[in-house]
Specification:
The chain is mostly helical and 114 residues long. The chain contains 3 helices and no strands. The longest helix has 37 residues.
């Protein structure tokens, strides 16, 4: 399962020095919201188990669909799981994208995209 990477204390200090307290607070708030959700889903035991169960069930339903042995209820469940897994994946992607952008900006020493 994916491990969530986090900013280290030097990254945080550098970002605050480059961008100022207001932008720092906004960025940390945004990343923090995503991190709490992703940590609960990916790294915490119950969340990890639920996600793994969803992935296994999704695969089972896909096989039933391909074998043309899927009921209408199972088809609805498959659509639901597909959306749910996509939402989790998108949240993870967005968190990683934002975290990488912060690190990139720190490395460049940029301020406000200049």
């Amino acid at each position: 399962m994916t491990e969530i990477k986090t900013l280290n204390s030097k990254d945080v200090t550098d970002y605050k020095a480059i961008f100022g307290a207001d932008r720092f607070a906004m960025t940390m708030k945004t990343l923090g919201k995503s991190y709490v959700y992703l940590h609960a889903v990916i790294e915490a035991s119950p969340g990890k188990e639920i996600l793994e169960e969803d992935l296994v069930r999704h695969e089972d339903l896909l096989l039933k669909m391909y074998d043309e042995k899927i009921s209408d209820d199972e088809r609805a469940e498959l659509r639901y799981l597909k959306r749910r897994i996509a939402v989790i994946g998108n949240r993870l992607f967005e968190y990683q994208r934002k975290e990488a952008k912060v690190k990139e900006q720190i490395a460049k020493g940029e301020r406000n995209g200049r």
